Amino acid sequence: MGTIAVASEDDLIAAVCAARGDGRKLEIVGAGTKRRYGRPLDTSDVLDLSGLSGISSYEPEELVLTARAGTPLAEIEAALAGKQQRLGFDPADWGPLFGVPANAGTIAGALATDTSGSARIRYGAARDHLIGFRAVNGFGEAYKGGGRVVKNVTGFDLPKLMCGAMGTLGALSEVTLRLVPRAPQSVTFAVKDIVPELGLTLLRRIWATALEPTGLAYIPACASDGFADLGDIGAGAALIRIDGAREALREKRAALRAMLHGEDAIDGEDGDVLFAQIGAGAAFAGRPVDIWRIAVPPSESVATAHALAGTQWYADWAGGLFWLELSDSDQGAATRLRHIAARANGAATLLRASAATRTAIPVFPPEPQARAALTRAVKAAFDPQGLFNPGRMYEGV
């Protein structure tokens, strides 16, 4: 397998045209932090986009940033911090889950895999923040979708299609994101010794208030060892993060303390670190286990927690996302988890497992026949020869 490194969109076009002419398949790679996410690939070459790096434009007053696809997230976040701004979808660092050093991921990788972190509960997912992009399709043509303003969509919303597509529809060359202001201060409250039913119900209750929390997670006793800074949590801990300017945060703290009857507060910086660990699946990073994620409506979180009894899990997004580990995934375990998710009108995804397991078990929820036909049609429209990451999401697509 060879590596084709590109440093410009023209290079990218040439590489895709050459692969198209030779009938070669391409694995799209940036920093390579999530190469073991998705089905294993059988490709001819690696298309290395890490040379497509750098912030193209940044307009803090407009809350808009454009960067090339291979730009490290750390570089973008450092630039935004200097202007008290942030990426609203709070990209989580999954690198350590796959044995890669922390803080190595790229912006296109975060968008392609939809690594939305804990603040998604407040600001939305990656698809809500990608407002424009440039890419090269399977015909070797450069094209753009969206633009530089939020309300610019008059036809098909291509940016939303690219988020979470795992690089199967084409190679991104540049992305434009809307930003959100970074709050000057934050505080995290920990309600300890609370059982899952009460803890998850409390999170949903707080989510429904005007407090605008930026983190709502529940850590049961069985997963507490993965978060050493929590200390003794008894039966479990509900974590609530709020932020704002000094006076606004003071009022929020008072309202939240009244709801919680005065629970423990964690220093803002420590709370941010804790929620970064929650979004990154840090509790399972160093363990030789398979990792699953189950997304459900938060209203179904208590029933889902009951159904997951006997497994090690924790919940983010006010109970809308469950992380869990299995010592070994097989068809029976996968069927059970997907049945639990389906009963809650949700979806179960295998985030990390061996190549053999990811070949034998569908990584993403199997699609109904009509939707599968649509998926194949979209793939054919963007990449008719199946050049890009073939089969990474679904076999034969």
Structure description:
The radius of gyration is 21 Å and the shape is globular. The mean pLDDT is 94. The chain has 397 residues and is α+β, with helices and mostly antiparallel strands. It folds into two domains: 48-181, Uridine Diphospho-n-acetylenolpyruvylglucosamine Reductase, domain 3, CATH 3.30.465.10; 183-384, Alpha-Beta Plaits (2-Layer Sandwich). Strands 4-5-9-7-8 form a five-stranded antiparallel beta sheet. The relative contact order is 0.13. It contains twelve helices and 18 strands. The longest helix is centred in the middle third of the chain and has 15 residues, at 246-260. It starts with a strand and ends in a 15-residue tail after the last helix. The protein has helices at 9-22, 73-81, 107-113, 120-123, 158-162, 196-207, 246-260, 268-279, 301-307, 331-343, 355-360, 369-382, and strands at residues 2-5, 26-29, 45-48, 55-59, 64-68, 85-86, 130-136, 142-146, 171-178, 180-181, 185-192, 215-220, 236-244, 264-266, 290-295, 312-316, 321-326, 347-352.
Annotate the secondary structure layout.
Layout lengths: L1 E4 L3 H14 L3 E4 L15 E4 L6 E5 L4 E5 L4 H9 L3 E2 L20 H7 L6 H4 L6 E7 L5 E5 L11 H5 L8 E8 L1 E2 L3 E8 L3 H12 L7 E6 L15 E9 L1 H15 L3 E3 L1 H12 L10 E6 L5 H7 L4 E5 L4 E6 L4 H13 L3 E6 L2 H6 L8 H14 L15
Parallel strand pairs: 1-3, 2-3
Antiparallel strand pairs: 4-5, 5-9, 6-10, 7-8, 7-9, 11-13, 11-14, 12-13, 15-17, 15-18, 16-17
